[in-house]
Amino acid sequence: MAPCFRGGFLVEFSFGAVEYEIMRILVTGGNGFIGSHLVEALLAEGHDVRCLLRPTSDRRWLEGLAYEEINGSLEQEGALARAVEGVEVVYHAAGATKARRPEDLYRVNAGGTAGLAEACLRRESPPRFVYVSSQAAAGPSRNGEGVEECDVCRPISPYGRSKLAAEEEVRRRGADLPFVIIRPSAVYGPRDTEMLLYFKLISRGIEPALGGENRYVSLCYVDDLVEGLRRAATADGVRGETYFVAHEEVWEWGGVAREAAAALGVKTFPVRVPKAVLFGAAALAELAATLSGGVATLTRERARVMWEELWVCDVAKAKRELDFAPRIGFAAGAKLTTAWYREQGWL
After folding, report:
1. Facing residues of 270 across strands?
2. pLDDT digit string (tens) for 224-235?
């Protein structure tokens, strides 16, 4: 049995054949879709979990959970110092996915990551730093194969470029900061709002089909991503490495629609969306957001991302070095996700 010291006391834990050390862990973005699932999993293992949250953050997915809260943001040096004090692992899952201006994405994603990394480095013994990046930082595949970690990064959106800039902030400090970077593919599951619109369209019998070409995607159920993140924090010999995390299945969007329809128990008919219609709708959404002072969900940059044919990544490195073994393919994941949406009244 592996011992550890916690608060001056020797603590040993063994659950069946699994033995692990209880750790103090910081999760940024712990109230979000991915972060809240991660917090739940860590607490279920008995870890001490701390979350850095703004006063205005929505805490509904954290209700009833026994976590420690640090009030503040990634832009507040004092809050960061309190957040990283005494922790052994930092999972940095906070970030912005959309903003009115590209510079706002850089300020939150790259600048916030740099500030958190610096706070860790001010510790006498910096914690392991697991950065939750995105496949968007690498960009789509260009050679018909899944993009690999060694490929040159070619992000095609401000969001992707800001996530790559955040990765570079982490790597710049790699001599002193023990970090691992995880790049998830498109993540879905309970609490996700990004795929919700797609499932809503399918539930109404509409199968959105962009253009006339097939488009392929790697998908990752949120529980599989959480397992990949946990392994990144505990695996030996992976300091300074980057990993794509996804299910090894590659899906054509027509197949995604069929599985989603099967999960919902509906029949669908394809609705072809020409490029001009997609980009025109995005331009109108941007104009409406500008006039209302909001942030558009569909933008021309987002449309460009959607129009790409190959958002596919290779997870061989994560399987080999992290012993990552995704368990939930999209057929099962779609059933779990739609059932949760219905329970919540979202569908």
Report:
1. 207
2. 999 999 999 999
> Strand 269-273 to strand 206-210: parallel, antiparallel, or no bridges (unpaired)?
parallel
DSSP letter for 107, please: I
pLDDT (tens digit per residue) in 186-203: 999 999 999 998 999 999
Phi, psi of 216 (to 5 degrees): -120, 150
Cα separation, 117 vs 100, in Å, equals 26
Q: Which pair of structure tokens corresponds to residue 38?
A: 């991660």
Q: Per residue in 248-263, pLDDT tens? A: 999 999 999 999 999 9
Tokens of 345: 């009244």
Burial of 183 (0-12, 13-18, 19+ CB in 10 A): buried
Task: List 252's β-bridge partners, or say none.
Answer: 216
> Given 3-state DSSP classes, what are the helix, strand and coil percentages for the chain, each rounded to the nearest 5?
40, 20, 40
For the stretch 41-56, what's the b/e string if a residue is b when 16 or more beta carbons lie within 10 angstroms of its beta carbon?
bbbeeebbbbbbbeee
Question: From CA 293, how far away is CA 254, in angstroms rounded?
Answer: 36
- Give the C-alpha separation, 318 to 325, whole Å: 9
Residues 6+ apart with CB under 8 A from 236: none
Unique residue bearing structure tokens 């570079």: 168
- The one-letter amino acid code at 226 reads V
Q: What is the pLDDT of residue 219?
A: 97
CATH class held by domain 23-187+220-247+312-327: alpha beta
Instruction: State whether residue 219 is helix, strand or coil.
Output: strand
Q: What are phi and psi of 126, to 5 degrees?
A: -60, 140
Q: What is the CA radius of gyration of the chain?
A: 20
b/e per residue 237-248 (b: at least 16 CB within 10 A): ebeebbbbbbbb
Q: Which amino acid is at 307?
A: W
Contact in structure between 119 and 83 (CB atoms under 8 Å): yes
Question: Is 109 in contact with 163 (CB distance < 8 Å)?
Answer: yes
pLDDT in tens, 102-130: 899 999 999 999 999 999 999 999 999 99
Angle 271-274-275 from CA coordinates, rounded to 5°: 140
CA angle 61/67/73 to nearest 5° reads: 75
